[in-house]
Amino acid sequence: MSTEAMVLSPAPHCEPRLEGGEVVQRGADVNTAVPHRVTGSGRPRAAGGAPASIRRVVRASCPQAVPAVESLATAQRFAEQVLRLLLEVVDRRRSPTHLRAYTDARALAAINTMLAQDLVPGRGLGSATLTRVKLTPAPDGAEVFASYQRGPRTLAVAGRIESLRDGWRLVAVRMY
Exposure winner among 26, 52, 70, 104, fewest CB in 10 A? Predict the structure, then answer.
């Protein structure tokens, strides 16, 4: 393929709107007008020249708006609750079935495997106490980072929670 005939269109604008509702405009050299081309269906394409299906995929891959503050507060409470419950389960103070209502089937299977193979980090140091929980918002959920104390050591838990119709659910978990 010859590089002389290759033409690139500008990258899509995936930035979220500013507080005032205004979008930052690109320089005039990037926003030059491109004449409409006619596709095989006879309909004109947008100025960028990409088919509608490609524009839809690009738009879907752009970052979504950050969840509302109320939703983040609910996610924070859920994360603290489910991580405390998880630590009780890995300390064998509760049965893994207590997690069934709050976790995805794959996450619960990973926890059961960790318990069956005795792969819980620092279990011989004493019971675990949750010390800090942080959330990073993501589309349709949040990434969870937490630290917990076992005796003199500080260990970590990472995971992902997702928002469903009936509430939040822990869908991935990793203990360090």
Answer: 70
